[in-house]
Each structure stands twice: as structure tokens, then as C-alpha cells.
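FORM 7B - TANDEM STRUCTURE REPORT

SECTION 1: FIRST PROTEIN
SEQUENCE AND C-ALPHA CELLS:
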Amino acid sequence: MNGTGRTQACYKMELKPMTFQQFVSLCHREGGMDESMILGVLSLVSEKLALCMAEGFSVKLDGIGTFNAKLGVRDDMLPDAFEEGEPSHNAKSIMVNGVSYRADKNLIRNTDRKCVLVKGGVSRLKKSPFSPEERIEKARNFLKTHMFMRVPDYVQLTGLSRSTAAEELCKLDRDPSSGIMSRGSRSQKVYVLRPEVTK
């Protein structure tokens, strides 16, 4: 329920793993190309894609999508980022920690055209056995013995799903009375006790 009297639902495709070799074999069977040639092309694309992103290019592959490198602070440098009076990090503390991908519209349309959907099972949202007040208290107690807390830590503490845990932590961050605040952004975002709580 979201206040409208209607139950919200989301749809998720059940995914089956396909290995790199299986994908190459599929291309070989349906495309008629030699497997070694397919392997060579894919290896070259992977290598040059990494090189171009490393040089600051946003690479668009028609029919596939657009690739961009993402930067973040090195994990071993993260705690230092929260020390009072620390100077800005130099380039050695920054790393490429991900690649953002935006699918080409033609790839999305082609996938939809080839997809045959059938109804599967129904799963319910994972609910926490703790009340909101109990979850906040658990988070505060965790942070009294740990430098910071990430979303997976809060998931383990509360039993919430990852998306619900992330949303709840954002609400706590916006509420000064929670005693919890965030540091960093995106993949480097962590949660710490507010200064007035640590005193």
C-alpha cells in the first residue's frame, strides 16, 4: 500500500546464467563465424573499450549502448575522508570503481520483440521483525562500535530488503533526531553517527 488503497507490485524476470563460452558458441552456431574469430573480436572490443574509457571517452556502440567509466574513492582511503581538517584527496586515492552502461534503444526494442513472457510465481516483500524504533536503535548501537555503516550492514541488522533498507537510511539521514547522517555519495555513501551523538 502507498496511501492509495492499492497494493504496489513490481515485475522481475527470472534470470538464467549464460557463460562467455556459451554465448560465443551461440554466435558461432547462428552466425556461421569461426569461434576463434568471435573470441578475437570480443577480446579486442573489451580491451579497446577499457582503453578508451580510461582516456576519458564516453563510448557508444550502435545497437548495444553507451559506456562510461565511474570514479570513486579507494576503499582503503575511505575512513580518512571523514577526519576533520583532512585536505582534499589526491589522484592516488581515486580509482575507477565501476562502469555505467546505458542500453541502446534499438537493443531494448529488439529484446522486447524477441521476448515471450509467461506468468511466474508471486513473492512478497521482505518485512523486518523489528519496529522502526528498534531498527534505529540497532543502527546507533552498531555505529558506536564501528566507524561507519553501509546499506548491507543495515540489511543484516534489520532484516529489510536492500531497497527498503536504502530508502529507510535516506529518511534517517534527513531526520536530525535519528542521530544518523550520511557521508560520501553513490557507491561510496556510508552512514555515521551525528557529531552530537558521539560526544
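SECTION 2: SECOND PROTEIN
SEQUENCE AND C-ALPHA CELLS:
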Amino acid sequence: MARILAYTSPARGHLFPIVPVLGELRRRGHEVALRTLSSQVSLMRSLGFDAARINDRVELIEHDDWRARGPRGALTRAVRCFSARARFDGPDLRQAIAQERPDALLVDINSWGALAAAEAWDGPWTAFCPYPLALRSRDGPPFGPGLRPARGTLGRARDRVVGPLVMGTLERAMLPALNRVRADMGLDELTDVDSMFHRPPLLLYFTAEPFEYPRRDWPENLLMVGPCDWEPPGETPAWLEEARPPIVLVTTSSEFQSDERLVRVALDALAGDRLTVIVTVPATDPRRFEAPANARVVRYVPHGPVLDRAVCAVTHGGMGVTQKALARGVPVCAVPFGRDQLEVARRVEVAGAGSRLPASRLRSDRLRAKIRAAMLKAEGARRVAAGFESAGGPKAAADAIERRLAAAGG
């Protein structure tokens, strides 16, 4: 059996999807070491992983793209954050390798320095990505603005014009930072952003069709395994057991991004309806919101028991909670605020699994109409759930990692 070392960025949305994969590897007899954000170390140890915190300096660098006024400014701030973290997460992974002496690595795609350290290492390694990939494709729209897949001559012409503009902006922001990190690790330069996703011998992609757009040009190293849903264990509170259906879940980002406006508008939009509204605000104080009689606002409650009884999930377009709802056949009303959320929200709409409302158009009457429209998309949500299940989940991911080990003689 092998010793596997996993390394994540300081984000629960990147840790939680790999937990069931690590659990599956452990059930198969492998030893699992983990470096992750400090707040989750104790919980990870309780699951049987040899967990320790990532370098403090990585956690101290804030992902502050929500402060930007537009998409270009947000991208600049995000790149600044990941490149600043890379100065520390690369050496941090190297130190962890020296301490743990692993047989294989599993590395977060957002840990740029750790990715470079893994590539420079002489053992088998795997990267994982829990959000839509920014890959060029002749079958998919340019990444970022949340465009629909092209249809016909006009659609293809749109992609020829918009593609270079969008990807050019992305590459001008990312490539210099990525290549500085790679140079520090003694690696060659990347010529485009696509190369970042081609370098891992195996790239686990935590989604699946029909939520992701079908493409004929996926790279050979990529494996879609579905969302690999996981959340911290906890008792279902008595008030949730007593909640009357139909239930609507409203939730915001686990990383602060100033999306609390979604909560206020949703509470206003659904006040007085014959619905039970359950709101979770993991990055905000729930006392900031005044809930009507049919609603409850909490920082955290396990989403699983809520979604098992829900008729709709209203999300900020985060990949984790959106896919968690769809995996249970619950349609989604996605209100994207930034980051990859425009892409996630568009996929909800294109898959026929819910509705989409840009944050710039967020208003009570519009949101109410979009929630009602999403509730009619349960059949599409069930199709997505079936696609996720057929992708194989943690077992498919663990199989692929074991094949890599076997190929490397591990």
C-alpha cells in the first residue's frame, strides 16, 4: 500500500471535494497525509488522516477579488493572491514531501507553487480542480463571461472574436506569475494557460456531463469524476426536522465575497410565501439579517438534510453547493457575483437544471420569478444527477490514482 500526500489551498470549497477521495483511498489500505487550512486540521484528523496545517503565510494572504469594481480588476486581484501564496506553498509542499516521504501527491489546482513543486518532484502526482476549467475548446465558449455554447455561424464568429480577447486577458494576467513560480522550481516556461492543465499526469475534474459542456477535445490526462460531495458531519437540528415543506435553501459563499445582498433580496422575495426558507451564510454573521416568519438564517447547517427535502436551491453560483443540490436532483436558481460563478450559473441554465439571474439584475420580483422558473426544472436536475452518478465519484478517482501508482511501480 502507498502513502499519499494531499495539499490544498486555504479554502473549504477546495478541501471538501477531495475528502471522499481521500477516504476511499484510506479504505483501500493507503496511508493519507494532508496539508490544509488550519481551521480544518482537527476535523481531518478525526477522519483518520495524518493532517497538518499549511504554512501560516499562505493562509494570511487574502483572496480579495470581491473588492474589485469589474471582472478585469477581480482577475488581477485573484492572480496577485495565488502568485503571492505560491511563494510559500511551493516550498511548503517540498518540506512536506521531505517529512512525509510519500509515494504519490494530490495537489489543488489553485496552489500554483505546490503544482510546480509536484511537477519538479520525481514521483507520480495528480492535480484536482473543483471549478470550471479555463480551457480553450472548439466545442465550448470562451471561459469567463458565462457565454452560451455557440450555435451556428454567428455563434462561431462570436467565439472567434471574443475568445482571443478573453483568453488574452487571462494569459496576460496569469502567465508571468505562473512562470516566475515555475522558474523558482527549475521548470520551463508555459506558453499558454492551457498548458497549466496539461502538465499534471492526471487531472481529476470534479464535475461531469451534462452539467459540463460536452467536448471532443478534452486533454487525455483529464478525468471527470463528478462532484464528490462531502460536508462536515453533524446532527440535524430539531428545528430542521420540524420545518414544513416545501423548503427553499438559500446560501452564500464559504469564502467572503460580499454577496450578502442575495440573502436580503431572497428573504424579501419569499416573505409571506407558503415556503420554508432556510438560509446559510458561512462567511457572514447571521445576526445581520432580519428573517420573516417563514425563514431562518444560520451560519451553518448541513446542506444534505435540507436539500433532501428542498424544491429549489438559491445559490451564489458556487460550484460546490450548486453541484451538491443538482446531485440530489434539486433545481437551482443561480445568482452569480464573480469568480467562476458566471460559468457555473450558465451551465445550470444550459443543462435545463434551473435558472440564472445576474447579480446586477438582482431584485425581489425578478428573483421570485426566477425561483419559480427553477422549480419547474426538476427533470433537468435529475438528468444532471444521473450524469454525476455515472461518472463514478470517489471510487473512479481512487481507481485512477491507483493506476498512476501502478504505472510508476508503486
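SECTION 3: OBSERVATIONS ON SECOND PROTEIN
The domain at 238-388 is CATH 3.40.50.2000 (Rossmann fold).
The chain has a mean pLDDT of 92.

SECTION 4: SIGNATURE
Preparer initials: ____
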